[in-house]
Design brief:
This protein has strands at 5-7, 10-11, 27-31, 36-38, 40-43, 46-48, 55-59, 64-66, 78-81, 84-86, 93-97, 104-110, 113-114, 137-142, 146-152, 155-157, 164-169, 178-180, 182-184, 187-189, 196-198, 204-206, 211-213, 215-217, 233-235, 240-245, 252-257, 260-262, 267-281, 284-286, 293-306, 317-318, 325-329. The chain is mainly β. The strands form five sheets. It has a 19-stranded parallel β-sheet that branches.
Length: 333
């Protein structure tokens, strides 16, 4: 599949806003065996009311996603941009990768509205909350699959599960399964569960060079093109802004930087890990109903926490109904 555009379609909904449910997903892309997908763009579609996912991409065997002749501004092999994904029976976007690791599967997800409308559709007003029944975005890597997903400037709100849910599965302790990327400039708010939930191996590791690349959730500074913060906004999620709960061989490497974490109803950031490299800096934690930053080590965790109110007062960690920062050894409880 070479240089394809899936653009300006209505999946599960008519132009007048009338539901026309598909029993499975709105859009399903399945790459198998030795197949190759090159420069795929999924742009400006509306996928709503479908029985499963709004957009579902599944990779099996040794299939690859490659960038060969990208359009201007296209930075990954697969681009999902400008779509409205709401009211689906499972997730707004589901990227499901399995099997081989020969190709680092790369995606960019930007400028989508997931869990709400961004424009008027018939009688449905812009900004209407219409939850996806599970997660806004679900990322899954199994066996040796490795994926890099950049998630940029999306509005991910009102989903019944998590805003973003990252999971991996290993069939043996030698499986490479990895999920990494850069997640910046998103609004991840008002979801019933957590803004981001991580229950699998996160961050990328290049065995050939020994180079580690953390999962970046927010970056310092502002975007020079529009002046917007490179951090994310997590507000009023039903659980945490970010929850990481991993054990065994599901080690992680994450940077959490320059984010606004406010009014989340179980706490700000909760991390329970057996093997974790963690950097938390220049974030604002305000009025969360629990611990602002809760670090639980069940094995070996290396954490750097700096440039928050507790040190140089460049961030705010206050108003929590529990501790500002808690660091604990041993299992949660």
């Amino acid at each position: 599949l070479r240089k394809s555009f899936i653009q300006d379609n209505f999946f599960g909904i008519a132009k007048d806003g009338t539901a026309g449910r598909n029993n499975a997903s709105g859009l399903f892309v399945n790459a198998q065996e030795q197949s190759t997908v090159q420069d795929l763009q999924i742009l400006n579609n509306i996928a709503a009311n479908n029985g499963r996912h709004g957009i579902h991409i599944q990779r099996d065997d040794q299939a690859s996603f490659t960038s060969v002749n990208p359009e201007a501004g296209q930075n990954r092999a697969v681009t999902i941009a400008g779509n409205q994904l709401f009211g689906n029976g499972n997730s707004g976007i589901f990227i499901d990768t399995r099997n081989g690791s020969a190709d680092l599967l790369d995606f960019e997800i930007h400028d989508n509205s997931i869990g709400l409308t961004s424009t008027a559709i018939g009688a449905i007003a812009a900004g209407t909350a219409l939850a996806n029944t599970q997660d806004g975005i679900r990322l899954f890597a199994q066996a040796d699959a490795r994926i890099l997903v950049d998630i940029i400037e999306n509005d991910i709100e009102f989903n019944t599960g998590n805003g973003i849910n990252l999971q991996t599965r290993n069939n043996s302790n030698t499986d490479k399964r990895q999920v990494g990327g850069t997640w910046i400039k998103n609004t991840i708010s008002n979801n019933t569960a957590s803004g981001i939930n991580i229950g699998g191996r996160h961050g990328l590791y290049d065995e050939a060079t020994g180079t580690r690349s953390p999962l970046y959730i927010g970056q310092e500074g502002t975007d020079p093109t529009d002046g917007k913060s490179l951090g994310n906004v997590f507000e009023n999620n039903g659980q945490f802004a970010l929850q990481i709960n991993v054990g065994g061989t599901d080690n992680g490497d994450v940077g959490f930087t320059n984010n606004m974490v406010r009014l989340n109803r179980a706490g700000g950031v909760s991390i329970s890990s057996n093997q974790e490299l963690l950097a938390v800096k220049k974030n604002s934690f305000i009025a969360n109903q629990g611990i602002g930053l809760d670090l639980i080590s069940t094995g070996t965790v290396s954490a750097t926490v700096r440039d928050n109110l507790i040190t140089q007062q460049t961030n705010i960690v206050n108003g929590n109904f529990g501790d500002g920062v808690a660091q604990r050894l041993g299992p949660p409880g």
